[in-house]
Design goal:
Radius of gyration: 20 Å
Order of helices and strands: HHHHHHHHHHHHHHHHHH
Oligomer: single chain
Shape: globular
Structural class: mainly alpha
Mean pLDDT: 87
Largest sheet: none
CATH superfamily of the largest domain: MFS general substrate transporter like domains
CATH topology of the largest domain: Growth Hormone, Chain: A
Distance between the termini: 27 Å
Length: 385
């Protein structure tokens, strides 16, 4: 048994490394800030850069799921890492606006490919009882890369007077990740080469799949909606400055990291479905506390609790989907990652409500996303998914 665990760990580590590389996509926020100042970009041109990093989730997720069914998950993960590596290479060769356009495009494509393929590959290197834990832990690993990116860029800017020195370091890590994963033998399941876009979309006819995909859609929308409204909430509720309000975003991301790590530990003692229900209920209570927080500190604590309790919900829903249809993991993964586009739909809807009713009433839309997850968790437990 001990030898088997060591074997599983040796196979899982390079997959965790792929999730770390996936986190390189979060450098988009820092890179756009520096590029805007150093290249003299307008707000409109800066937004084009950001859009190029995320539009690929809607366009490529399902096709990538079909591709990996034919070529294999490990090959597809390495292809995604290759695209991210190329995205790191371009600014080294051409730090211009058009160079950054190409870099962000490659980063977006690579990130989408890894998002679709790394989750089902993690299924192949994880015992069934550890899949939920490993998927949650992988999101923690990804968050570490996202957290370190701004610090590394700032260090390079201060120490070497050039923040783009970050790119060679990231490129080297991409090369190591490809070589490590390529050298690791991983027996894959669910890759029959029979998948098609039609067969993937037909999965939505299954009620359980449709409910799970809706769950990931709403949770990504909730997460982006929280991220974009935290500063406004603190500013309007407690009269703080924009800078002080923005500190709440850092509190939220710190809570997400803590929540994913703690959830990974607890999943060794709890079933994934039970964890999902607990997280959903506690998330609703924490979110409701935003409305009754009497002061700034209480508001910040409420933000932290929301991040803490929602941190594991997305990977838990994803895990439930993979366990429900392990033989269709490639297609299902494509559908679930496509639902990341919820981050571009829910927040604008909340923004429209905000224009008519104000910020606090508009946040109710985000709260309804969490209520849906409670209903989904009860459904999963009842139907033993």
């Amino acid at each position: 048994m001990k030898q088997s665990n060591q074997s599983s760990l040796s196979k899982a580590l390079p997959v965790f490394m792929a999730f770390y590389v996936m986190g390189f996509g979060d450098i988009v926020g820092v890179a756009t800030g520096y590029a805007r100042l150093e290249l003299g970009l307008s707000n409109a041109l800066t937004q084009v850069l950001t859009m190029l990093a995320f539009v690929w989730f809607a366009l490529l997720s399902v096709p990538v799921g079909i591709f990996q069914d034919k070529r294999g998950k490990k090959f597809t993960v390495n292809l995604g890492i290759l695209f991210i590596g190329l995205g790191m290479l371009v600014p080294i060769l051409a730090y211009t606006y058009y160079g950054m356009l190409a870099s962000f495009t490659l980063l977006g494509i690579g990130n989408t490919i890894i998002q679709v393929s790394a989750n089902p590959l993690m299924q192949d290197v994880s015992p069934a009882h550890r899949l939920s834990r490993n998927l949650t832990l992988s999101q923690f690993v990804k968050a570490i890369a996202g957290m370190l990116g701004p610090s590394i860029a700032a260090f390079c800017a201060i120490r070497f007077h050039n923040w783009t020195y970050l790119y060679p370091a990231y490129l080297a890590i991409c090369v190591l990740a490809i070589l490590w994963l390529r050298a690791t033998y991983i027996p894959e399941t669910g890759s029959g080469g029979r998948a098609s876009i039609k067969s993937a979309l037909s999965l939505l006819a299954d009620r359980k799949v449709a409910l799970l995909v809706t769950g990931t859609f709403l949770m990504v929308g909730f997460d982006v909606g929280m991220n974009t409204n935290i500063a406004g909430y603190l500013r309007q509720s407690f009269g703080v400055s924009q800078e002080e309000g923005s500190l709440g975003i850092s509190i939220y991301f710190a809570a997400l990291m803590a929540g994913r790590f703690l959830s990974a530990l607890l999943l060794g003692r709890m079933k994934g479905n039970q964890m999902l229900l607990c997280c959903a209920i506690l998330s609703v209570l924490a979110f409701a506390s935003l409305y009754v927080a009497p002061g700034l500190l209480a508001g910040q604590i409420a933000i932290f609790l929301v991040g803490l309790f929602t941190a594991a919900i997305f990977p838990l829903i994803f895990s439930a989907g993979l366990q429900y249809m392990p033989q269709r993991a490639n297609e299902l993964s494509g559908l679930m990652i496509m639902s990341v586009c919820g981050g571009g739909i829910i927040p604008p809807l909340a923004g429209v409500v905000n224009d008519f009713t104000g910020l606090m009433p508009s946040l109710i839309l985000l709260g309804l996303c969490l209520v849906y997850v409670i209903c989904l968790a009860l459904y999963i437990i009842k139907n033993k998914l």
